[in-house]
Amino acid sequence: QVQLVESGGGLVQPGGSLRLSCTASGSIDSINNMDWYRQAPGKERELLAGISRGGSTYYTMSMKDRITISRDNAQSTVYLQMNNLKPEDTAVYLCKADSRDGHDDYWGQGTQVTVSS
Question: Which of 58, 94, 95, 110 is the most buried if burial means most Cβ atoms within 10 Å?
Fold first, then answer.
């Protein structure tokens, strides 16, 4: 089993930046990819970016030019640097990890990001 805890969300003004963290515990050696998603009220959950166990990154078009995903050397924490935030970026941001055997997905509880002046 893997547990994920996100942090770093909060209230930020338009144009501001935030760095989100997702820390894994438990069977961290079983983790393959780690992804960041977001879910705004009344909208579907959407994938933003991911990073493989080997460090390869992938981004969707949603925030592609304004975010950077990274993973620490111990591979237990993944970060999402978000820049030039806009009010429409307001959402709960969630971390997902999938297992190397492809059998399991694990989700964190999410961290709220609110972009408002």
Answer: 95
